[in-house]
Design a protein that fits this description.
By secondary structure, the chain is α+β, with helices and mostly antiparallel strands. The chain has one domain: 2-Layer Sandwich (Dna Ligase, domain 1), CATH 3.30.1490. The protein has four helices and four strands. The strands form two sheets. Strands 1-2 form a two-stranded antiparallel ribbon. A two-stranded antiparallel ribbon has the order 3-4. The protein starts with 20 loop residues before the first strand and ends with a helix.
Length: 142
Amino acid sequence: MARGREPMRSQGPYDMAQPRIFPFLRNNSPGDKSMKALLGGKGANLCEMARLGVNIPAGFTITTEVCQEFYRVGGDLPPGLMDEVKASLKQVEREMGKKFADPDNTLLLSVRSGAALSMPGMMDTVLNLGLNDEIVEGLAKQ
């Protein structure tokens, strides 16, 4: 494990053998390029770049196992997942020195789906998540 930071751990009846969320922070990630089946190609490569010290924005990847579990149980998020997402978001906020939904110092997010194999055109990307009229006004003031 790099630099003492633990990935978020699963809890409850959906407990999996490994973490459900893998952060990629400056010079630090428990994930790496060999984990494409678990993290998707983008997620695995972002973790690898963070480990190598490449200057990328901080973020986190939710594993493909979570997606599989979501479909397996009929479209419900595994218990505790949103708490893990919120904790991971806090890590990213600390790393970036910004805060999600703060008009004075906002952190905007990109949400990208991914798979082990590239599937162009099959997956959605959401850019600038968190952008609204209040945030735009805050950005304009900056």
